[in-house]
Design brief:
This protein is α+β, with helices and mostly antiparallel strands. The chain is built from 3 helices and 2 strands, in the order αββαα. It has 2 domains: 40 residues, no CATH class; 36 residues, no CATH class.
């Protein structure tokens, strides 16, 4: 029962990206930050892009994901 509740709660979570809005920088501490939900159904398979460029971008992303320990070791954000 607890596992099911945890699973349901996890499904409700939304991944968001926060960006700084310079027009709102001086309103308050939290005001300049705006968020966008990352729930677009598009995938690399459905993306209209030159196949060679798409493969290159996907290879770069795969390498980035696989090098998490490297970024931690050199003290950079992953």
């Amino acid at each position: 029962m607890v596992n099911r509740a945890t699973s349901m709660k996890q499904e409700e979570k939304k991944l968001k990206i926060f960006t700084l809005d310079p027009d709102r920088m001086y309103l308050s501490y939290f005001a300049p930050w705006t968020s966008v939900s990352l729930d677009h159904p598009s995938t690399f398979e459905t993306l209209a892009m030159d196949p060679d460029v798409k493969r290159s971008v996907m290879d770069d992303l795969d390498q980035f994901v696989q090098r998490r320990d490297f970024y931690k070791r050199v003290g950079k954000a992953w």
